[in-house]
Specification:
Blueprint (H helix, E strand, L loop, with lengths): L1 H23 L30 H11 L1 H4 L9 H7 L1 H10 L14 H4 L19 E2 L8 E2 L4 H5 L18 E3 L11 H6 L19 H5 L4 H5 L25 H4 L13 H18 L3 E3 L3 E2 L2 E3 L1 H16 L7 H19 L1
Antiparallel strand pairs: 1-2, 3-6, 4-5
Helix pairs in contact: 4-5, 12-13, 12-14, 13-14
The structure holds heme C (6 copies).
């Protein structure tokens, strides 16, 4: 970081120096005027962003604290099939061409330039989002797209990878050879739009409408909660964290609508989903489906319903919001899976 700033200061010094040289031909200079407004005047090209305010620095500092910056996962992108979500370079290539041709030798973590076209026009227009179009959910048969505003950007990466072998409700048995079968880490966007669960029949109906209740209420999906004003540089904004370092919840993301709420456990949703996940895990373990290397499915041949129950567990465990991303759908998938396995056990 230090080196980048030194480089930046050198360029600034050069730009300023040039100004002094040019202005010194015209006689003595008057007192410095006040800082102009952002944007507009082409003569303040760099100052539109690199001005004396702390706005840019604040975003940089928040970003530097985020898992996007610190997670270290870009290294997965030396493999082409992982690079579209795990690196800056792979993501941009995938979004332009629909594929990543080869592993990225020196992959970068997602960064400013992944999400904003920095230094393209050298105006504040460079703070627009690189991709804002409705996102395609690759696990849907028809490659359906969904619109969750600015959250579309996030959903391009935070979605499950396509299953191999695929599964359909009441469909043929599945022969699963890899214990890694199931959804990948980061299936959040699928849950938010109400797709990807194995809709096993049961007493709890699945929501008729597409998407979580929030999907109809929030203009920008993920961004409205994960980038709400937060605590210092530890949660909210460009940290994307819902909790700060002490674990305290960033309630600013919720209280605008759920006034008086003091935890994310609104309507007891997280407590309930946690209990359902525990019960389902016990049943899957007892049925000899779950527990390979203490965290995966045992390779083998399963009926669609059995594999589907595992999928529902794994999906909602990997989502990590304990139902906040779509409580009604999560509860129905878990409850009906539990019913099925409990009945089978008897
Ligand atoms: C739209 C806002 C914006 C404008 C206009 C802008 N920059 Fe930047 N600049 C950024 C951002 C954002 C970064 C990346 C910060 C980071 O990654 O920590 C950056 C980074 C830099 C860096 C560090 C090296 C690098 O590329 O990351 C230098 C040097 C720099 N800018 C110089 C300039 C100069 C000179 C101009 C005018 C010709 C300019 N910038 C105009 C937003 C802007
Ligand atoms: C280029 C793909 C990509 C995009 C776009 C993206 N993410 Fe991520 N995100 C990732 C990856 C990969 C990780 C894991 C990073 C690591 O561990 O190094 C991650 C991590 C996170 C985490 C931290 C998870 C944890 O372990 O605590 C949150 C929260 C998050 N992203 C939310 C978002 C939101 C909100 C957006 C949209 C504004 C977004 N992401 C856009 C790929 C992406
Ligand atoms: C469709 C996008 C996508 C693809 C493709 C993808 N991942 Fe991920 N991966 C993510 C996201 C998003 C996260 C962060 C999820 C979270 O924090 O909840 C993640 C997290 C991870 C993690 C946990 C964080 C870490 O680095 O320790 C590992 C490991 C991982 N992925 C490995 C892989 C590997 C290996 C591949 C290729 C075989 C791959 N991923 C392909 C989206 C993807
Ligand atoms: C994972 C994607 C992502 C990354 C990485 C990212 N941003 Fe952003 N940024 C966003 C989104 C989404 C918004 C819109 C937030 C909103 O509307 O509340 C935004 C908003 C902004 C804004 C406000 C723009 C405006 O029109 O008011 C600035 C400035 C900004 N980002 C700078 C940066 C800088 C600097 C970095 C790198 C240090 C960075 N961003 C990294 C997604 C990202
Ligand atoms: C209604 C607000 C809300 C929306 C919308 C939302 N999230 Fe979350 N998200 C949460 C909460 C709350 C948690 C769980 C925090 C906890 O209990 O620690 C969470 C957890 C996560 C996590 C696990 C890591 C973490 O920070 O706890 C990731 C990754 C994530 N969300 C990404 C996304 C993505 C991507 C989207 C959009 C598809 C999205 N979220 C939409 C509120 C939201
Ligand atoms: C823009 C307003 C808004 C914001 C912001 C918001 N919510 Fe909600 N939320 C609602 C409304 C309205 C409902 C629907 C209540 C109903 O149908 O009974 C709801 C429903 C819920 C539900 C039940 C959902 C279901 O499917 O039954 C949970 C859980 C929840 N919110 C948690 C949260 C959390 C946690 C946050 C902050 C991270 C949050 N909400 C932010 C407006 C919001």
């Amino acid at each position: 970081m230090k080196r980048i700033f030194t480089g930046m200061l050198t360029i600034f010094a050069l730009v300023l120096g040039l100004q002094v040289v040019l202005t010194s031909c015209e006689g003595p200079e008057g007192p410095a005027g006040p800082q102009g407004p952002i944007g507009g005047d082409g003569s303040v090209v760099c100052g539109a962003c690199h001005n004396l305010s702390t706005d840019l620095l604040q975003k940089i500092t928040q970003y530097e604290y985020s898992i996007h910056a610190t997670g270290g996962t870009a290294i997965r992108s030396t493999t082409a099939s992982c690079a579209n979500c795990h690196s800056h370079e792979g993501f941009l290539e995938y979004m332009e061409t629909g594929t990543v041709a080869a592993g990225i030798p020196v992959p970068l973590q997602p960064n400013c330039r992944t999400c904003h076209p920095i230094h393209e026009t050298y105006t504040v227009a460079d703070y627009a989002l690189t991709y804002a179009d409705p996102f395609v959910l690759n696990i849907t048969e028809e490659k359906a797209s969904f619109d969750i505003g600015k959250g579309n950007l996030c959903a391009n990466c935070h979605q499950p990878r396509v299953l191999d072998p695929k599964i359909s409700v009441g469909g043929p048995d599945l022969t699963i050879t890899s214990y890694r079968w199931g959804y990948h880490h980061g299936p959040q966007a699928a849950l938010y739009v109400g797709e990807g669960g194995y809709r096993i029949p049961g007493s709890m109906p699945y929501p008729a409408t597409t998407g979580s209740k929030h999907m109809a209420l929030l203009d920008n999906g993920c961004v409205d909660c994960h980038m709400a004003p937060g605590y210092a540089t530890q949660s909210g904004g460009h940290t994307w964290n819902m909790r700060n370092a002490s674990g305290a919840a960033n309630m600013a993301a919720c209280t605008e609508c759920h006034s008086g709420a003091t935890s994310f456990d609104i309507l007891g949703g997280q407590t309930e989903v946690e209990h359902l996940l525990d019960s389902l895990k016990t049943l899957l373990t007892d049925a000899g489906i779950y527990g390979y290397q203490s965290a995966y499915i045992y390779p083998g041949t399963y009926t669609a319903d059995e594999a589907g129950c595992y999928l529902n567990f794994q999906y909602l465990e990997e989502d990590r919001s304990l139902g906040v991303h779509n409580l009604t759908y999560a509860k129905a998938l878990l409850t009906n899976s539990i019913e099925f396995l409990a009945k089978k056990k008897k």
